[in-house]
Design brief:
This protein is an alpha/beta fold. The protein has a single domain, classed as Rossmann fold. Helices cover about 40% and strands about 20% of the residues. It contains seven helices and seven strands; from the N terminus they run ββαβββαβαβαααα. It has a three-stranded mixed beta sheet. The chain has a two-stranded parallel ribbon with strand order 1-6. The N and C termini lie far apart (about 50 Å).
Length: about 160
């Protein structure tokens, strides 16, 4: 039986504030970056603040909808490192974690949390670009770019 309730499900890409932070191996202050996989597959980077803006805008749009949201452009992790290098004026030390190691980590996970983290790292490694053209025609939100975020991080804000 269907409830008839209206809903909006937001399905964001990868959060800049999480994946481009020291706890996940992206340490802009020290010029170090851990890249999961080859670093060539572009995920859709989005700011958590942009996701909040989509949530607020969705309140006035009743219906049943699933909205995939990403940032203004899908960039590979290596492109992101390049942007941070350009913004900071320093070369980053880049370490790669091969997909095979992530697959083995997921297979040997002893609890659901370890399995989830390994799965998320594999998702990041494989990339998942999101075409935002249709979504942006419906939601007039100015999205933060990776370059905007890099400038903010480098400036220490």
């Amino acid at each position: 039986m269907k409830s008839g309730m209206e809903y909006t499900i937001l399905r964001p890409g990868v959060f800049m504030e999480v994946w481009l932070s020291p706890p996940l191996g992206f340490d802009a202050a020290n010029g170090k970056a851990t890249i999961y996989g080859s670093g060539k597959n572009p995920p859709s980077w989005i700011s958590l603040f942009d996701v909040a803006a989509f949530a607020a805008e969705s309140v006035d749009r009743p219906g049943k909808q699933i909205i995939q949201i990403g940032g203004p452009e899908a960039l590979s992790p290596l492109d992101v490192v390049r942007i941070f290098e350009e913004t900071s004026g320093r070369k980053f030390d880049v370490q790669h974690v091969p997909e095979e190691a992530l697959t083995a980590q997921r297979a040997s996970a002893t609890d659901p949390m370890q399995h989830s983290f390994a799965s998320l790292m594999l998702y990041y490694a494989k990339g998942d670009p999101i075409d935002m053209s249709r979504t942006m025609s419906q939601f007039p939100i100015r999205l933060k770019s990776v370059r905007d975020y890099a400038q903010q991080v480098i400036a220490g804000r």
